[in-house]
């Protein structure tokens, strides 16, 4: 992991096509970042990706009796 110290309005370049700009450093230890990248690059917050992945995993679990409940709904 590369660790950098940046101030407001300073930038970090990733390759030739991604620019991260520090927009604001707040006193409560948070930082606002601006990210410029090609539209075909997905930029996502990790906690959202993890949350969706966890929810998908939970939804995929088949509980006991699920088959019989499905057959009831289908009228069989």
From TrEMBL:
Pfam families: CsrA (PF02599)
Family statement: Belongs to the CsrA/RsmA family.
Subunit structure and binding partners: Homodimer; the beta-strands of each monomer intercalate to form a hydrophobic core, while the alpha-helices form wings that extend away from the core.
Role played: A translational regulator that binds mRNA to regulate translation initiation and/or mRNA stability. Usually binds in the 5'-UTR at or near the Shine-Dalgarno sequence preventing ribosome-binding, thus repressing translation. Its main target seems to be the major flagellin gene, while its function is anatagonized by FliW.
Protein name according to UniProt: Translational regulator CsrA
InterPro entries attached to this UniProt entry: CsrA (IPR003751), CsrA_sf (IPR036107)
Subcellular localization(s) per the UniProt record: Cytoplasm
Gene designation per UniProt: csrA
UniProt keyword annotations, A-Z: Bacterial flagellum biogenesis, Cytoplasm, Repressor, RNA-binding, Translation regulation
SUPFAM superfamilies: CsrA-like (SSF117130)
